[in-house]
Write a structure and sequence with these properties.
Largest sheet of chain A: 6 strands, mixed
Radius of gyration of chain A: 25 Å
Number of helices of chain A: 16
Distance between the termini of chain A: 70 Å
Shape of chain A: globular
Oligomer: homotetramer
Structural class of chain A: alpha+beta
């Protein structure tokens, strides 16, 4: 088959999966008021593969490396710097074109690519074959995946094996000739209730006594024992706001409960090899943070655009301190972009798989996360108090009020009051809404905390090189001089 | 009369005022789903005056300086450092006891105190008498006020007299023997639709050609030509959340349209004295920023409490980087507190009126505003991703889900999962909600922007002293040495 | 006697003490090219007591609380907020009048005041009596002290008793009826080689197996077995620079080696009470950080003055971004001042001893230390590249060059080129010299690291109060409402 | 000829040039105690071309694009990304191998490359030919250049033509058939007194009435009327310190006075074309900031190495807050490196000249400069107070003191006290010396201030793109959707 339509995708979600949201069981996720828009967003990824613009289509559709059949380009395992750049561009452009990220295949393959790397490092041909077979299954049926990695964790200061009960981290509770049985819960899983396949990895390094926790596998979303509990919405579009026509999607996260779920061996990619759990978590994190810094780019560009626009609509674009703030905003956005591109241009090869540069990727993510709140503060500052207290669309349209608002809410005479109102409302959405607050939280936590990024930076940076340079200067190590050999 | 009941207050709001919200006219603000909670919050201020705890009652009720009748202590014009401390404590405690700030009398008297200072500096006995008469009217009838200061401003780079139309700043359009007629609109006015009297000041320094804009006065909320347009709510409490019993109030802001409103002379406190507009704006800003840093204290204490609690509920309170973050959080909160107290302890006297120290007040406000987003980021960091994606109360109560959630959402074994859920929900409200995003915006804009605070810091700081110290060291000015006289 | 002259003080230093600097033994510290200026600086403290200006004299001279004889006011143990303010003002003013801090009595009494507090908490009358007798000895003979607290520490990750050898922390190696014998080394001790008495405290909390390390005492500077190793100078004044006439002092630090030094029991203030070592270190830190934030004030004022002056000499004082930077500079300086005053105004009483507020003191110190480098960066930014590369005084006076420099190094036409040159040189000294780099280091380390301040902030801040406020809102604890009692 | 020896270079400096330093005229710069080390550093650049290591030699020696003769690779005008990477690597490696940057050819060609770009944009063949002829002269004679760009500027708030006198910016005072006569002074010119040729550019955009200031040219260092006034040293190596054998060079800056200097037309590259002065200043700034971020890399790596080493020597490398700081240090260094590489990999082409990406280059420079002081603070923090107060080498060697120091100044038992002492001394040089303070100043000012970088970031960043993205979302512009065309 390969390359489904958006309707194929929607139909595939009506498969008996067990989904709850806001205290209610959902019969059909595609029509649910909160989950439906998430389905639409993910469906946008299918629509891109059928775009009338060949340049867009070519970005999203590739050829199967063996059969040549058209497949989603997400299912091309990266071999080159260009593959990584393509991957980043797919992610970025999709937000621009769909209005939100059709999240799923990216993280699913972040998981799967990491599984390939680790199977290669293990030298475990069986795991490699299984992962490739699963990938080909995804390619051929053009399926959507999510990545279930973060466990619920219980007491954060305790190891998986040392908790009040053993289930705070997902683990194997039984195994037989056919497969394994797993128990546990994964949290914050984006797109979870609307995918076809759930790919599961351990969230951290496991130790010898935690071998049962070192497990990676995939199961279909409607597998027996799998329950999704989705979080509620974050204030969706209403007619109180000014942009009803633009396609502005959303995504949903969910917990996934694995209540003694059976997984056949052909879908198991790690089981017990605790020594490799670190490499798996680490490689996944690198791929996934590269995905993250890619999808953040259009999001922060758009938020930055609100600042640029509001500065102009307020008549402030030539004021010195505003220009200073716009420069800070631009430097924030473009440093993220430069680091993302650099991570793709300086990959690390594991066998024939190109992994985005782990050091640069983590620095990019840390740059994004550690300075995001200051970035938002700058936009709020430029926007003005009106982005907190603006009247709404129905006020604007009310005959008693319209002329007042038209008269009094103008800004720079170059722009209509209506356009200023629209931009105020967009800026509200970007920096003064439930959604914007939620984005702050995921900035800090999604794809790992800043502490996790610092840990990887410390592991990857050439500290030894720095130290030796200092030791040579200090006279502790010999100087290596002009002729390239140790002196004195 | 003096000291009304909460019911008296509510009754006084059914006076024919013209209020709109979300495109609808409001017949009775006390029963409106968004405005009603604001009324309840403000009514809390009346309830405090009738508290069964004498210590609380004594904090909020004072004696009229002449008649001795009981009056709201807000209506005591500050003469001493202790008066300022009382004022700060009234504000702080009310948030703790009522659950939200009964905002109104504070800013109303911030305006009125500034008017007294300026009338004194002008040597204008008539203005002083009028302001005092108005204060006694408020005292005797125990009325609620708001302060209408911020104009809508149009093109921010243009002066009031140099805009597309003259109405972007409120101004006098006519005057006669009985009074003046004013036109304009004030924005972001907290509590506006639920007060008895609106006190109006100019928002900035005016120049000679802007004398009509240098106008200060008071009008009743139901005055002819006054229209309130309130902003919509920010996601009020639902049964999806976990704290139905606590009294958690809210406030509402609104635009106020003045459509050729008549003001009798006895309510006019400045009219045309543009030379004093700067002093008026400046003194108001000082009083009001002192109010601000007072009411921010319990708000940031409570948010800090979420971080402390979540660290413990997550089992992280002994982890080094978490402790470091908690220390940063505490230093942020307590520096605000120390500066607020210091501003009260080192007042500047204008005649017999004690003005909070302008330099320290502005530094306190700038400290609060410039570091608030980093403070929130720390809380979000400690809280964990669960504060973005937690299931809601109805999930918790659903028979299919309850046991899963009880089992999987535990944290430190010292606490019940239910308590952790409650704290997660409170933390969501504090740092991951429409409300929390709104607080970021008002942090930046309410009571003036950070640029405004820097301008006042620059005006108040002893730059000349610094410079002379450097010039003495540099040998440009003579050294003043041990004997206290210039040397060399 | 009481109140010596500067000459008395100088004479007292010729007592056979064992001092080394830059690889040479010093026969007379008063005439040494590096140590002499330190002696002059400390002597300035004696000169202040003899100032011809009675206001200055009264600040530095007090009456003995019992005998009434004139004594240095540093030797008044603080009982009130005013005593603490006096103490802060003595420190600040002395830098303005002497040109540098006559450091010694401040830290000596920081130690002794802490010893009084701890002896009181122990209820150990003997220690109290000894400390008082020692204080009276200092008062009567008007002696200079230093405080020897920081040990050399060896491997920082190991406890005192768990090092390569036992001497990385000073400890008791013998004891008999007459006294104790101590061994160890103290580092970074300011003014050490030029004092009369060395007061020694433990640098940290000690545990049960470290009782020998829990020792506090005083010895004269020329005691048998005491050796001072002073660090070299930091580039003293030469005729290459422009301010030969101003009195600009300096200070010196030194290691003190205690090579089996005998201390009679009457000079021992703690010996073995490891349970109180924490309180002693903690109380000393509070007193001493209060001293620190006091003496930092005139130093940062003067550095700020260079920025103000250079902005004007460069013609930049009206430029928007420069004004913004000056506001940041002023806020930095004045926040330090406000917190210092607040620490004195809100003391904590231990018996009848007023201890500066520990929370505010530590916040003041952390404010100072954590933002100092940014403050210096702002001054360097405003100063211009010329503060790095300016010609020197001899260039200015060279006949071939003078006219060129006069012509080309002018700035704003309001000032002479000579004055600009002088201010450039002063700014170099403040922010582009060996001395300025050294100040950055002591900003971070003197009076304890930022980590130490954060630890104390965490210990002192009302975290429990924050948490309960959040728990009440969350519905975990009952709400305490308007009537001051738990509800619901 | 091409490719001189270091001795040829030294000999060429004895040419009658007029150099002053610290109030004295210098007869031979090669033997002067301050200037001699600068000559040695620059000579290192010649030694690299004669390295016995072919890989090093090949990095520094290229073939003349026409004649094929060996030339310095600095004199290859960049055509490709690889040329820019080579340029960056030459700069970085030279610091590692020579111990300091042989500064001169880099900035000289930064100027000349900018001149080529501008001549091309003007379409002025004559200027192009002259610049090429001059470049070939440099290539053939293997000469050292400096770039004289920054004027002394007088009152910074006034334009060149609007100052107290016309000479605060260098300008043409006469012209005839043979050439032009210029007057003015350039400040902070690195390596100036030790180069062969001085290349001069305007420091800023000039306006129509400032055409005489729009002048670019080259003159030999011994030209009639040229005087160099070098700044004094910054505390060179003495036997008080621990690293006498390592080759640690230095550089010198100087003012250059142009006292009616004649320049023949064949050395004039711009004269009066004020419309292009902006492009010239801007393009030079881009090339030169790329040079800057390249040479900063090994400098900050080495400083970072002191932190890594001191953490280990102090026994602190496993402590959580130290690791956190090391991660911050590494992220600072490696972000600089990643941005520098990215600027080379994404060049902007002007004709066939590859200009480093201006946006990324300026972000790299701003990253470096704005966070440098925090970086230094972290190193000082990790280093400990001992980096301010350590005894010196002669103390170490003194028989009275050696055993004390050996005993007491040990750190982690893994390292000898001597190695720790050496590393302490190196760290002092890096972060607690006249030199380190000077580096802070040039961080802020060299290659343009942070304000200048922000201005260029604002000019280069795609603000319009951001704004349109926001406008599309807001419904102000039509949405461009999945089919790549405007919708609705």
């Amino acid at each position: 088959m390969a390359i489904r339509t958006a309707e194929d995708y929607r139909a595939s979600l009506r498969d008996g999966r067990r989904v709850y949201i806001m205290g209610e069981k959902v019969e059909d996720v595609t029509t649910h008021p909160v989950l439906g828009p998430t389905v639409d967003t993910v469906a946008g990824g299918y629509e891109l593969c059928a775009s009338k613009d060949p340049a867009i289509r070519d970005l999203y559709v590739a050829s199967h490396p063996v059969s040549g059949e058209p497949i989603s380009r997400y299912y091309v395992t990266p071999r080159t710097s260009q593959d990584l750049i393509n991957r980043s561009m797919m992610i970025r452009r999709s937000i621009e074109l769909v209005g939100s990220l059709p999240f799923g295949r990216d993280i699913g393959t972040d998981c799967l690519n990491a599984a390939f790397v680790v199977a290669g490092q293990m030298g475990n041909q069986q795991y490699q074959d299984r992962a490739l077979a699963f990938l080909d299954y995804l390619r051929h049926n053009d399926l959507i995946t999510c990545g279930a990695v973060t466990d619920v964790k219980g007491d954060r200061s305790r190891e998986p094996a040392n908790q009040k009960h053993p289930d705070y981290y997902l683990h194997v509770v039984d195994r037989n000739a056919d497969g394994i049985v797993v128990k546990g819960a994964k949290a914050h899983i984006t797109s979870a209730p609307v995918v076809n396949e759930v790919v599961v990895l351990p969230t951290r390094q496991m130790r010898e006594n935690e071998a049962d926790y070192a497990v990676a596998f995939a199961v279909p979303a409607n597998a027996q024992g799998v329950t999704f509990i989705a979080r509620g919405g974050r204030g969706d579009w209403t007619d109180h706001e000014f942009h009803p026509t633009a396609r502005v999607g959303t995504l949903t996260e969910g917990m996934i409960i694995f209540d003694n779920v059976f997984v056949p061996w052909e879908r198991v990619f790690m089981c017990g090899e605790w020594q490799y759990s670190m490499l798996l978590a680490y490689t996944f994190a690198t791929f996934h943070r590269f995905t993250a810094i890619s999808y953040k780019i259009p999001l922060v560009e758009c938020a930055a655009g609100c600042a640029v626009a509001m500065a102009r609509y307020n008549g402030l674009e030539k004021v010195s301190h505003i220009r200073n703030k716009l420069a800070d905003i631009a430097a924030y956005v473009e440093t993220l972009k430069a680091l993302t591109n650099a991570a793709a241009r300086e990959p690390v090869m594991y066998g024939d798989i190109a992994v985005p540069n782990p050091l640069i990727t983590n620095m990019g993510k840390l740059h994004f996360a550690s300075k995001y709140h200051s970035f938002i503060q700058l936009i709020q500052d430029i926007g003005g108090g009106i982005i907190g207290t603006a009247p709404d669309r129905r006020d604007w349209e009310h005959p008693d009020l319209h002329d007042y608002l038209e008269h009094y809410l103008g800004g720079s005479a170059q722009f209509s009051t209506l356009d200023r109102m629209k931009m105020i409302h967009e800026t509200m959405r970007q920096v003064c809404s439930h959604d914007s607050a939620f984005h702050e939280v995921i900035t800090v936590h999604a794809e790992g905390s800043m502490e996790a990024q610092k840990m990887m930076i410390l592991a990857e940076a050439p500290l030894k090189r720095y130290e030796e340079m200092a030791q040579r200067r200090a006279g502790i190590l010999p100087w290596i001089g002009i002729d390239g050999v140790a002196e004195g």
